[in-house]
Amino acid sequence: MLGDAFPFTPRQHMTRSEEMVPASWSQEVSSAGEPQLTCAMAPGANRNFLVAVGVLFCVLGLGGLYWLLTGGGETSLEGYAALLVPAGVVLCGIYCFDAALFARTRYLLGADYFFTHKISLFRTRKSEILRQSLVAIRRKYTPPDSSASSTTPGDWVTVLVYDAADGNGISEWPLDGTHTREEAQWLATVLASWAGVPVERGVGAGSDEADADEVPSLPADGKG
């Protein structure tokens, strides 16, 4: 439970959204004793599909490379250039493996900074935001496009609102995730409790503020 892993959230003030960690997220405490949240693709049909596609692409690509390198293709300049095609197919397979099994984003809730560490086989990025610069945690809901099906839930994004040190005023930092209603409610509550700032919620450009424990849930369609 978050009351054990996150000392800034008193157990008696825990809400249901804090107790139920979304499937794509995990929580732990870093070696320095600071809370850490990790977002990665959750086990399930989507990840299994990406792994299967990755295997297919790699098998086809490696088979093509073997055929070309063992004399099945031309030995001319055009033949060697043709190696780029199966190599590209293998690369697509590796991208699938990366998205399904390796890519993840870690958020470290430090004493003075909010650290972001994006990990991938192809690129690793780090960034940070001063904790004192945070002014709110914003849960933004975007309704589905008019052409979408009636079952499309729309898009929820959790955003850090902070006072940029470069003089550009208030800025937004959208967080990675699955962009579901449950994720936005849980993540905004955890971050607001850590940062000691209000949660802003609303649809489109409209929003209102409340303490983390007082923010009501928006309906599934974002109306009301």
Describe the protein:
By secondary structure, the protein is an alpha+beta fold. The chain has two domains: 2-41 and 103-212, Roll (PH-domain like), CATH 2.30.29.30; 45-101. Helices cover 33% and strands 27% of the residues. The chain has helices spanning 2-5, 16-19, 45-72, 77-81, 84-102, 181-195, and strands at residues 25-29, 35-40, 104-109, 113-119, 125-130, 134-142, 155-163, 170-174, 199-203, 208-210. The strands form two sheets. Strands 1-2-3-4-5 form a five-stranded antiparallel β-sheet. A five-stranded mixed β-sheet has the order 8-7-6-9-10. The chain starts with a helix and ends in a 14-residue tail after the last strand. Residues 1-18 and 205-224 have low confidence and may be disordered.
Please provide a brief summary of the model.
By secondary structure, this protein is an alpha+beta fold.
Write the layout of secondary structure elements.
Elements (H helix, E strand, L loop, with lengths): L1 H4 L10 H4 L5 E5 L5 E6 L4 H28 L4 H5 L2 H19 L1 E6 L3 E7 L5 E6 L3 E9 L12 E9 L6 E5 L6 H15 L3 E5 L4 E3 L14
Parallel strand pairs: 6-9
Antiparallel strand pairs: 1-2, 2-3, 3-4, 4-5, 6-7, 7-8, 9-10
Supply the key terms.
single chain, 224 residues, alpha+beta, PH-domain like, 2 domains, five-stranded antiparallel β-sheet, five-stranded mixed β-sheet, 10 strands, disordered N terminus
Q: Helix share of residues?
A: 25-40%
What is the string of helix and strand elements? HHEEHHHEEEEEEHEE
Q: Helices and strands: which structural class?
A: alpha+beta
How many domains? 2
Count every helix, treating DSSP H or I runs of 4 or more residues as helices: 6
- The CATH architecture of the largest domain comes to Roll
- What is the typical, i.e. mean, pLDDT? 80
- Would you report the number of β strands? 10
Percentage of residues in DSSP E strands: 25-35%
CATH topology of the largest domain: the name is PH-domain like
Per CATH, the superfamily of the largest domain is: Pleckstrin-homology domain (PH domain)/Phosphotyrosine-binding domain (PTB)
Widest sheet: strand order?
1-2-3-4-5
- At the first level of CATH, the class of the largest domain is Mainly Beta
